[in-house]
Design brief:
With 384 residues, the chain is of the alpha/beta class. The chain is 40% helix and 15% strand. The protein has two domains: 141 residues, Aspartate Aminotransferase, domain 1, CATH 3.90.1150.10; 240 residues, Aspartate Aminotransferase, domain 2. It is built from 14 helices and 13 strands. The radius of gyration is 21 Å and the shape is globular. It binds pyridoxal-5'-phosphate. Pyridoxal-5'-phosphate (PLP) binds next to helix 3. Pyridoxal-5'-phosphate binds next to helix 3.
């Protein structure tokens, strides 16, 4: 994707950090913000169309992940959804010293929620991953305790793109009578997500990762699952999540998700062409690097580690060429320390510091990939 700037074209290839807002979603948001300002909860007729818009957005989103509309609860995004799923699953039973099981490569929204619960007396079990970043189902099987209250493993990793064997993990959780949550923030809108086929009891999603606005998302809550509200207040969202709904953002999220799901196959093909172009260019120029995250990864997602490289330096040098990539997850980009994800994958010592994440989005072209490949090749040769 290229961004117009006053001086030159910028290639944005950091779509795992956030995506560009879809034009139609933006137009819808603008229209709703300007012309449908009433509170959706009000009883007068001015609010009636808003109730309908809210209902239709919920229906559209539910259809995209094979859920029922009342199983979709709108939140402020992935962080809130993760906090809610994890904290509310254990807060009611703190006196029993509940256990939480999660993986070593989760986003900080999950890991720090677990850490906060550990401070209140919960025990937290961290599952390792293999070199590709996948949790082994047998590890989960062995770690479940009688006092385990929730198991949370992400669907797709935000740094290396690895897709986890969620169905097998959820089956193990259910066989032991446990609740299974998945952080699907990087997956929803990019790969097929079917909550029934996955067997998830709870699933977190964030709109800004699929060309919708920032600050909005949802938590899928399987029908019948009891989860105390995390945000208390009024009776919105079936009395499960209080706060006046951000209707323009919610409607835009539904529009963008439906569109991304409709175009998913074509987009995946295009993204694969971008990654292939970039990898071919680097390999064709004998650049010494490895691709992290195994074969089963998100389309368009590349975590590359260059031998004896310095990820921070590469990122800044590419920035000087108007190319946006990141060194790890966006939230970590000011920290120079090696990410917990790369450490968990055991990326070899000679490569680990030279890691950058390039994540193509639907607006990127093969030409963008060629330009990135050319600059990366030149930068690596300069350093050799
Ligand atoms: N979970 C994952 C896997 C993410 O990649 C992110 C964002 O980077 C989040 C959670 C947090 O989502 P949000 O930015 O909507 O709070």
């Amino acid at each position: 994707m290229t961004v117009a700037s006053s001086s030159s074209r910028i290639i944005y290839a950091d779509n795992a950090a956030t995506t560009k807002l879809d034009d139609e979603a933006l137009a819808l948001m603008f229209d709703l913000q300007k012309n449908f300002f009433a509170n959706p909860s009000a009883a007068y007729k001015l609010s009636r169309p808003l109730k309908k818009i809210l209902r239709e957005a919920r229906e559209k989103i539910a259809a995209c992940i094979n859920a029922a509309p009342h199983e979709i609860i709108f939140t402020s995004g992935g962080t809130e959804s993760d906090n809610w799923a994890i904290k509310s699953s254990v807060l009611a039973n703190l006196s029993e010293r509940p256990n939480i099981i999660t993986s070593a490569i989760e986003h900080k929204a999950v890991l720090n929620s677990c850490a906060a619960m550990a401070n209140l007396g919960c025990s937290v079990t961290i599952l390792p991953v293999d070199n590709a970043g996948a949790v082994k189902p047998v590890d989960l099987q062995e770690k479940i305790l009688p006092q385990t209250k929730i198991i949370s493993v992400m669907l797709a990793n935000n740094e290396v793109g690895t897709i986890q064997p969620i169905k097998r993990l959820a089956d193990i959780a259910h066989a032991a009578g446990k609740i299974f949550h998945t952080d699907a923030v990087q997956a929803v809108g990019h790969i097929p997500v079917d909550v029934k086929a996955l067997g998830a009891d709870m699933l977190s999603a964030s709109a800004h990762k699929f060309n919708a606005p920032k600050g909005v998302g949802f938590l899928y809550l399987r029908e019948g699952l009891k989860l105390a509200p995390y945000i208390d207040g009024g009776g919105q969202e079936f009395s499960r999540r209080a706060g006046t709904e951000n209707l323009p953002a919610i409607a835009a999220m539904a529009l963008a998700l439906e569109k991304n799901c409709r175009l998913m196959n074509a987009t995946a093909e295009k993204l694969s062409a971008c990654t292939k172009t970039l990898l071919d260019c680097l390999r064709g120029n004998d650049i010494d690097f490895i691709v992290n995250g195994g074969e089963n990864r998100l389309p368009g997602h590349l975590s590359l580690s260059f031998r004896n490289g310095e990820g921070e330096t590469l990122m800044h040098r590419l920035d000087l060429k108007n190319i946006c990539v990141s060194t790890g997850s966006a939230c970590d980009s000011r920290q120079v320390k090696i990410s917990h994800v790369l450490q968990a994958l055991n990326v070899p010592e000679a490569y680990i510091r030279g890691t950058i994440r390039i994540t193509f989005g639907k607006e990127n072209s093969r030409e963008d990939a060629e330009i990135i490949g050319k600059h990366l090749t030149a930068l690596q040769r300069d350093c050799a």
